[in-house]
Design goal:
The protein is an all-alpha fold. It has 17 helices and two strands. It has one domain: Amino acid/polyamine transporter I.
């Protein structure tokens, strides 16, 4: 099998005391493989996914989480090989947006970029509530249960969001001041949270009172097709984030480092997820998993250890949430930078800070939008309901843009058959099958949502509501695409090509956002 770590298409820049900027963007080339792993692993947020996801997936597929995580990894790995091959062909911080636009057309390309950005912004919004909830757990442990007449309830969406937004502001400031400093900070957080996670899960695996069963790895134990599709989409969501490494490809010293970082993080996540899912089910019954939902990790810690040791997983969860929000801000701002230099979005997204070499203005705007969405989410008072709705919506969006990017790879390299069967399978067959699997799962799940309810209600149990979230995002994306084509007259639509990473960013006099 050929190496999945692409070689740079141009010779690397010679070392110099100060990192050189990426061509035409002002982005500084200062990152390596370790930074890519840190960004990808932080964005995937294994601890956060495990903490809030194990209980969530148990409500859908029971104890079959290990089976679905292993099964979902296969198409995700196929998507990852597509990203690596496309990145080798065309390193661009817009990644899927650029690649799909040039291979499948500007409309699906813009939609890919749009749903990627919106999904990331929603993630920042709801993860800020997770951070706030963890802070409130600390406050409760310290004996502080009310403040100024407000009950400090970690399960409350409103109070958790208010606290989380304060933390989100600080993380945004750090993301603005430099990517390298951010990745080093994330790496320190990762080391701590993984050490805690592995320690407690290892303890649960050894001492758990629930009998291990091979049936946990049997997906055929799931009799309901809708539950299987929803569980698979959620399992894909667990892995979501490894592609963040490709968003800093214009800031890495070698473009191939982005692919290596993403793939290393992806395989590490598989091991962590399988290990944790078995450990959780060894220690907790299905009823306990469902009842504790997004509080499953703190509940596990309380079962296994006394204070102050039981607080360590809560600290790890806070670190994971903080690192994932921060690492999500990085690819989101850079994806919008790519769209801005194509004039599919406004010029505010192309403004790079002269001192820090980051898309500072875009990062701040993303913060403002995420904050607004977080405030709107307070309409769902229970934090567990809000998280389930957000995770399901993002899961469908991830299936859409991963699937389109994989198909773009198959189309772009469709002539690889002339290089032999092995190359054709790896360059065309694997990406095409992986993309179709995810698009098929998303389509089936969307159809199931439409047919499972006969009225609309703000509840994660209501199919119409669950379908409406991603549907509104996609329709809004098509509307924004029409603005980009007919109002901004973006070359992305008029010439059929986006802007190369090497193309200079020119001043623009159109609408700012």
């Amino acid at each position: 099998m050929p190496s999945l770590s692409p070689q740079p298409s141009t010779p690397p820049a010679p070392p110099s005391p100060a990192p050189s900027p990426g061509p035409g963007t002002g982005l500084r080339r200062s990152l390596g493989v370790v930074d890519g792993v840190a960004i990808a692993a932080s964005s995937t947020a294994a601890t956060t996914s495990i903490a809030i996801g194990m209980g969530t997936i148990a409500t859908i597929v029971g104890l079959q989480a290990p089976a679905l995580l292993l099964l979902a990894f296969l198409p995700v790995l196929g998507i990852a090989t597509a990203y690596a091959r496309l990145n080798r062909s065309e390193p661009n911080c817009g990644n899927g947006y650029t690649w799909v636009g040039r291979s499948l057309g500007p409309w699906p390309g813009f939609l890919t970029g749009w749903v990627t950005v919106v999904g990331s912004v929603i993630f920042c919004a709801y993860t800020s509530a997770v951070m706030g909830s963890v802070v409130l757990i600390f406050a409760n442990k310290a004996g502080l249960h009310t403040l100024a007449g407000i009950t400090l309830d970690p399960a409350s969406t409103g109070v958790s969001t208010a606290v989380g937004l304060v933390l989100l502001l600080g993380l945004t400031a750090l993301a603005v001041t430099g990517t390298r400093a951010t990745t080093r900070f994330q790496f320190v957080l990762l080391v701590f949270e993984y050490a805690v996670l592995l320690g407690f899960c290892g303890w649960a695996l050894i001492t758990g009172g629930q009998s291990f069963s091979l049936s946990w790895f049997n997906p055929f134990e799931i009799a309901d097709g809708t539950a299987f599709a929803q569980g698979m989409v959620l399992a894909v969501f667990f892995f979501w984030g490894w592609d963040a490494a490709f968003s800093v490809t214009e800031e890495t010293r070698k473009p191939g480092d982005a692919a290596r970082g993403g793939l290393i993080a992806l395989f590490a996540m598989l091991g962590l997820f399988l290990f944790a899912s078995v450990a959780f089910q060894r220690e907790m019954s299905l009823t306990e998993l469902i009842e504790n939902g997004p509080q499953a990790l703190p509940y596990l810690a309380q079962k296994l250890a006394a204070e102050p040791w039981a607080t360590l997983p809560v600290v790890a969860l806070m670190f994971s949430a903080a690192a994932s929000v921060q690492s999500t801000l990085i690819p989101t701002a850079r994806g919008l930078l790519a769209m801005g230099r194509d004039r599919t979005m406004g010029p505010v997204w192309t403004r790079v800070h002269p001192r820090y070499g980051t898309p500072a203005a875009g990062t701040v705007v993303v913060l403002a939008i995420a904050s607004a969405i977080a405030v709107l989410a307070v309409a769902m008072p229970r934090l567990s309901d809000m998280l389930l709705a957000a995770v399901n919506a993002i899961g469908l969006l991830v299936a859409l843009y991963y699937g389109l990017t994989a198909l773009a790879c198959a189309v772009r390299f469709r002539s690889a058959g002339r290089e032999g069967l092995r190359t054709a399978v790896l360059a065309v067959g694997v990406p095409a099958v992986s993309g179709l699997v995810l698009l098929g799962l998303g389509g089936y799940l969307g159809y199931s949502y439409l047919t499972m309810s006969d009225h609309f209600e703000l509840s994660p149990d209501n199919g119409w509501f669950m379908f409406s979230l991603p549907a509104v995002i996609v329709l809004a994306g098509l509307g924004m695409a029409a603005v980009a084509k007919y109002v901004r007259r973006s070359p992305y639509f008029t010439t059929g090509r986006g802007t190369d990473a090497e193309t200079l960013v020119l001043p623009m006099d159109r609408t700012a956002v």
